[in-house]
Give the backbone structure.
Amino acid sequence: MPGGTNIGSHRMDSMLTPHERRIDRLYGHGGLGVTADSHRGYMNFGLWDEGIAGYAAAARRMVERLGELLGLGPGARVVDAACGRGSQDLDLADRFGPIEIDAIDVTRRNVDEARAQAAGRAGLRFHHGSATRLPFQAGAFTHAICVEAAHHFDTREAYLREAARVLVPGGRIALADIVLARAPRGRAEHALVAAAAALWQIPRSNLVDLAGYRACMERSGFDVRSIENVSAHTFPGYYHAQRQPERRRELVRSRGRLGASVGAMMNYAAHRVYRAGLLDYILVAGQTRGGL
């Protein structure tokens, strides 16, 4: 593990903040196991480019696109924040390897499933811990990736500062993330955004527009290389995929009726805020200051 620190499982649990415990509960629900899950363990909205058929292909395309933005290639040392069940790291290793990946997630169930998926695979290591307190030495990595999770962190800026710390000078970062398309206007729009943020466990300080996002990146030690708005290729496709009857039945088997209902409300809330013109999905590429 590049510059890593072994932290006992029970000790790590006790170090989680109240917000991280809520995230753990949100994503640590019971499951069918990756092999029995039609989503194949992916947890992003998917990038529904032309020709993409089905959720798993869209989710895989999202991960591949971020790898392309990073310029990943053999010999890269990657830190993945909020790795979920590890499907994205297996994809990155297969597509861009051989590479080294240290992946971290605050949800223990996800880490256990990721380790099971990657059993016997060299170069893939999964850690239970916090993205805002990365247990790695400064300059341990050449690349950092965060797939649709930085909006959950308390805070996004705390994560970005940690990412900058563990990257080499000139190290690259790529994120799939969300921003406010514009400030809400009126009581109804403020209530809509607040309800969606509560369902998705998004801290208020992370609800920024594009200008605020750029400023956050720059304060954290990154030069922004590119930002691409892919909203039309994410929110609608995911919304409709989650509403398919077979997926709804699968979610009931996996999470129970209450958990499936919460998931349906989250899906509806995200789509509703997007349709109101209040939410954008962006792909971001940045680089720490200083040359490799």
Q: What stands out?
A: Strands lie at 77-81, 100-105, 124-128, 141-147, 167-180, 222-229, 279-288. The longest strand covers residues 167-180. DSSP finds ten helices and seven strands in the chain.
